[in-house]
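ok so i was messing around last nite and threw this chain in just to see what happens. nothing serious, just curious
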Amino acid sequence: MKKYLILFLFTLHFSPIKAGNDVLLFVESALQKNPKINAERENLKAIKENENISRSEFLPSLTISGSQSSIENSKIKDHSGTEAADTKRNTETKKISVDQKIFQGFQGYNNFKKSKLEFEKAKNEYKQVEQDTILNSVSTYYNLIFKNKSKDFNLANVDLFERQVESDRSRLQKGEISLTDLAQSESSLAGAQAAFIKADSEYISAIAEFERINRVSAPEKFDDNFDISFLMPESLEQALELSNLNNPSLAIARINLAISDKELKVEKARLSPSATLNYSKTENKDLSATVDQDEKETVKATISWPIIQGGKNFSSIKKFKHKKERNALLLEDKENEIKTQTATSWSFFQSAESVLTSTAAQLKAAEIANEGITLEYDSGNSRTTLEVIQSRSLLLEARISHAKAKKDLIISKMKLLNQVGGLNLKAFKIR
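result:
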């Protein structure tokens, strides 16, 4: 009951993702074309067949066989040395055999249950890859937007310093500033150009990474709006509950423990008696010189009980007991790991919201300060060239920090959703 209540609250209190059309298209492209997730799809189909293989153990097996031979005898002599005529015989045999396993000490039953658990494990592995693919797809898109903005900010900064250098050269001729002021402007221009080259290189790398993940060409134009909201837990406690229920990595650890339990039961079943039933019908032609044809029907029940196999079965049981204990310990470790990761993701999400608010205030203050200092400098007031350079550097840093904070907030949301198992294509809604 508690599980369903949590899921109900998860649906009730959260709002759907709102994303631009481009984001959804890129995510869909990544989910359709990315080789890693396509490989998981094929693996899921292959594991599904294990259920049919295990189910076949309960069904009868039918075997049809036949043989045909030709025998020729020549140079036949009796004890007195008298030669007999050569003989030639053709024989033909047809056989139909039906086998049905009656009892295997629940070996077949546990193998079937194990195959169902393996399919559930494969589904969770697919879910994990799907979530990682969506995370990488959206991350590369918003990182591309950020790198593009960073490049544009640096380009605008280069343009400002180029105009300042031209202005300072004119002012130097008029004696309004010193040669040192001009050198400072030229040095800042060189630094701005170097920063732009670096930002441009990072943008090119971001394009390559985007195209590798999403398998489409990177867009030339971007929506400057970083606003994208996701289905988010409302508290750390809710996030921990959801991750405990839905985290695919944790689910895989639990399934591994259940699989090892079934494997142990299969090994124990090998020590139990087993019973099989066989029906066969054989048709022979040209059996001998006196019999031309005969048909034979046989029904046979077989019971076997392995008593001693050199200690092999007992060692196998011990082996799978150790394996089960190992998976139990790994599950305990995974539960602690998921709790820690979820708490960390929640903390990053909360701090990302605070950082975004701080950088917005920083940007507003930097814009006001830069505008005021630039006007005072241009009017020939007491402002120095160094103060103008510093204010522009602070403005550039504030712009980049604010853009990065927007991107980091989106990524922190997605990483938290990845932890609680809520990151999938259905969570997206086109605006």
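not much to say yet. The chain has one domain: 2-67+104-427.
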